[in-house]
């Protein structure tokens, strides 16, 4: 379309691009500020005022102090365990449920489906759930943050919708050749649903990485803390003391700030680095969910 | 009876496969619903849930008559209201603006950048906010350098809701827009051509064609949002609030957390939680039937 743009249209474009550029700046700059701060010399950083365009001074000290903190290692270890084992259980149970509920000619699928959908709108609440988990003796074990969130009803329904869209004929011919339900699920349905399985893995894994509430409720033993609870201690409850002991007290506040910045980077950069490569899948996931109506 | 037996025999593998799923929902959703009866009981650990004596609505009347009812209900409703008024339209506006961008690369860049904060954990977001807004943080450095003085944002009750809603927009505006962008691509392009022939400018095309085109999506998401009015993101509030700002930040869910998990009064806090869930369900049903009558869109 080569027609000339009117003055009004050009003004519209300029305003639009400016607003979006400003939005990008507001999104990106806080993250950049943290990265610059984490690489700065902590004493110079405290004296500095206003925007940072690059690190002031340069030092890896904060990173080495954070990495020496045993809680970071413990947090990473626990989070990785929760993420790997938890995501496996999530995806296994979700696909099992979604497959069964997408079968036709099964008498009880309708009531079971309604039972699952109902939980999206009403539940017993925090305390009765806590009592169940407690009575199962899961408190202070990593299972308490894996098992009670094993299936997301929403994800199950998304996956079921996807399974329903697969052609019946494949399954019928497999059954005629004597395949049982397990063969149909693992050899036919799942291989055809790899896009949705990938989306489920990503959603559940990111959920585990960022989850903090259940850990706060169920875990008191510091050896069991996932990364997010460790971060809470450092970033929000300001417990950087054990990392700053060998620093003169005057500089302790300065060092504490640098430690916070590098902690944020260490805990966030992995996921931010992976995300742009997987963005396609994530957006696809949102859209698969949207067509469920 | 015969069909039942036939069904059980023919589909026995299906039922075996779905058993763990049904068990999961039974154990972690329906058992707690059964256990919520302690809201009407004087719970004692020795007696257990089943044998503890009934006391009717005493916990509820204690809550309604107590000091916390007004404060927590008001905060829950106000935080939700602000979030709906400011947080809900933000992704819609972003989607509309992105739709008007001609250059594909710029569009992709904006999308990639604005989706990013969605993947930052809420702990880190709150930690960053605390650092930027601290008395010596960058925001106060900037305002004091242009002579506006400093504000102790984190200790001021009047700032809490703004910070809560604002950080939520920062984190979710991009991610929330995905669904609207998809809805916009579904709009019939001939509508735009017809409008252009009629001399409609970009602005009026946006308001008269794009916006009405995504209205059904907006309404569905708004119903879902209204049905969650009582479920404010208390995960973030638990991280953000301190006793200094309880006055504007303490919501029903955080009160349940303190009473139940920290103080251990399971029966009373279950009652407060049940009140919250029931009001929520009622609101969802109302919003849904209202919308079905007004626009024909509903979630069931």
UniProtKB/TrEMBL annotation, chain A:
Does the record carry Transmembrane as a key word?
Answer: yes
Q: Which UniProt keywords are given for this protein, alphabetically ordered?
A: Cell membrane, Membrane, Transmembrane, Transmembrane helix, Transport
Give me the Gene Ontology terms describing cellular component. plasma membrane
Its annotated compartments are: Cell membrane
Q: How does it sit in the membrane?
A: Multi-pass membrane protein
Q: Which domain of life is it from?
A: Bacteria
Instruction: Mark the transmembrane ranges.
Output: 12-36, 80-101, 113-133, 145-163, 184-206, 259-278
Q: What Gene3D superfamilies does its record include? A: MetI-like
Species of origin reads Cohnella fermenti
Where do the ABC transmembrane type-1 domain residues begin and end? 76-272
One matching Pfam family, short form?
BPD_transp_1
Q: Under what name is this protein listed? A: Carbohydrate ABC transporter permease
Please report which protein family the annotation says this sequence is part of.
Belongs to the binding-protein-dependent transport system permease family.
Q: Where is the signal peptide?
A: none
């Amino acid at each position: 379309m080569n027609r000339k743009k009117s003055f009004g249209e050009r003004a519209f474009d300029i305003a639009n691009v400016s607003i979006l550029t400003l939005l990008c700046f507001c999104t990106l700059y806080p993250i950049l500020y943290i990265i610059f701060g984490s690489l700065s010399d902590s004493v110079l950083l405290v004296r500095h005022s206003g925007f940072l365009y690059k690190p002031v001074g340069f030092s890896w000290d904060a990173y080495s102090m954070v990495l020496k903190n045993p809680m970071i290692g413990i947090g990473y270890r626990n989070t990785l365990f929760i993420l790997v084992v938890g995501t496996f259980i999530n995806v296994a149970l979700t696909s099992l449920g979604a497959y069964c509920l997408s079968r036709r000619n099964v008498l009880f699928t309708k009531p079971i489906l309604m039972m699952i959908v109902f939980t999206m709108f009403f539940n017993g609440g925090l305390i009765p759930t806590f009592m169940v988990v407690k009575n199962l003796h899961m408190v202070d074990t990593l299972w308490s943050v894996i098992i009670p969130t094993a299936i997301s009803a929403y994800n199950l329904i998304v996956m079921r919708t996807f399974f329903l869209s697969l052609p019946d004929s494949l399954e019928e011919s497999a059954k005629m050749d004597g395949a049982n339900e397990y063969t149909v699920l693992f050899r036919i349905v799942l291989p055809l649903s790899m896009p949705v399985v990938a989306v489920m893995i990503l959603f559940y894994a990111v959920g585990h990485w960022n989850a903090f509430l259940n850990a706060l409720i169920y875990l008191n033993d510091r050896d069991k803390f996932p990364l997010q609870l460790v971060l809470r201690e450092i970033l929000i409850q300001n417990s950087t003391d054990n990392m700053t002991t060998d620093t003169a007290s005057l500089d302790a506040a300065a060092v504490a700030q640098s430690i916070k910045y590098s902690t944020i980077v260490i805990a966030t950069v992995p996921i931010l680095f992976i995300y742009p490569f997987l963005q396609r899948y994530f957006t696809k996931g949102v859209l698969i969910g949207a067509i469920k109506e | 009876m015969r069909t039942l037996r036939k069904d059980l025999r023919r589909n026995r593998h299906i039922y075996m496969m779905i058993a763990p799923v049904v068990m999961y929902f039974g154990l972690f959703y329906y058992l707690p619903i059964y256990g919520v009866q302690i809201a009407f009981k004087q719970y004692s650990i020795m007696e257990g849930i089943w044998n503890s004596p009934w006391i009717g609505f005493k916990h509820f009347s204690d809550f309604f008559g107590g000091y916390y009812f007004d404060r927590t209900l008001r905060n829950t409703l106000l935080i939700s209201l602000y979030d709906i008024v400011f947080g809900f339209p933000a992704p819609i506006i972003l989607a509309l603006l992105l739709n008007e961008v001609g250059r594909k690369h710029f569009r992709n860049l904006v999308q990639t950048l604005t989706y990013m904060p969605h993947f930052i954990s809420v702990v880190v977001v709150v930690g960053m906010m605390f650092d930027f807004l601290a008395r010596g943080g960058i925001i106060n450095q900037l305002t004091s350098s242009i002579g506006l003085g400093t504000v102790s944002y984190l200790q001021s009750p009047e700032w809490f809701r703004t910070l809560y809603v604002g950080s939520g927009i920062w984190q979710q505006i991009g991610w929330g827009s995905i669904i609207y962008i998809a809805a916009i691509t579904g709009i019939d392009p001939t509508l735009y051509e017809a409008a252009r022939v009629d001399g409609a400018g970009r602005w009026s095309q946006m308001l008269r064609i794009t916006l009405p085109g995504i209205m059904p999506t907006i309404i569905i998401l708004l119903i879902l949002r209204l049905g969650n009015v009582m479920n404010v993101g208390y995960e973030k509030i638990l991280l953000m609030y301190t006793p200094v700002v309880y006055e504007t930040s303490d919501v029903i869910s955080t009160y349940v957390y303190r009473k139940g998990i920290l103080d251990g009064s399971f029966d009373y806090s279950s009652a407060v939680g049940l009140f919250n869930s029931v009001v929520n369900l009622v609101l969802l049903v109302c919003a849904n039937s209202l919308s079905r009558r007004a626009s024909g869109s509903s979630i069931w």
